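# nightly structure sweep
# worker-07 picked up a monomer target from the shared queue
# config: single-sequence mode, recycle default, output format = structure tokens
# input follows
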Amino acid sequence: MCAPGRIASVFERARAEERAALIVYFTAGDPDLATSRELLAAIARGGADLIELGVPFSDPAADGPVLEAAAARALAAGTRLEDVIALCRELRAGELEGLPEGAAETLAVILFGYANPFLRRGEALAPALAGAGVDGLLSVDLPPDSGLPLYDQLRAAGLDPILLATPTTRDERLEAIFSEARGFLYYVSLVGVTGAAQGSAADLQQRLAELRSRSPLPVAVGFGVDGPEAVARLAPVADGVVVGTALVRLIEAGGPELPARVEAFVRSLREACARG
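# output follows
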């Protein structure tokens, strides 16, 4: 079973260390599951606090071309939701070679994807995720008003439903999001798909202050965060920073010693999370 509160512990630990939590996304099964096992361990060694395991989907409408191509490669390699769940189970069992000590227990993991494969599993989904040690789930195309049954099932199984808010989210929708979400709020810092450029720092800071005035949930900022410099700009104002497309682009380039280069990139992101 997953440890209750693992996501909350991530943000508490980061806060105590006066830094933003580092959240890293990559698509499971890109280019294949064997490589994903190596990369998951490498990302943990680099110091990520939370990993978003992307579940490949054939119509990833919210993703930019980099993540869309990653999903296509993973699907072509035969990766399905069951494989992603099994990957998390291997992590929790300490079966991933090169995993740092303690990471199997402390590294938080959420699944990130689209509603269709999740809803297809019905009521069996949440217990399966909990049994594999998954901590939460984010479905980018499942708004709170139509997702209530799944969110209830996740919470009942001890998992956190992670929901998105954007710069254009209306007040009434925001209330529904805060009502359903647990763990943290994922704030999309731009209007567009993953990998696009961010808006102004002043607008972002003002929006984060508004969100914090309405909910005690930590707020993690993602979409368009492309490297250590961007992380360093966000770390003083965000509870967590999410990096996805830049890492997936590195994975796409492939080549020798990919896990070592991924580990070094993640370590540079982690160092940029410091607020001091």
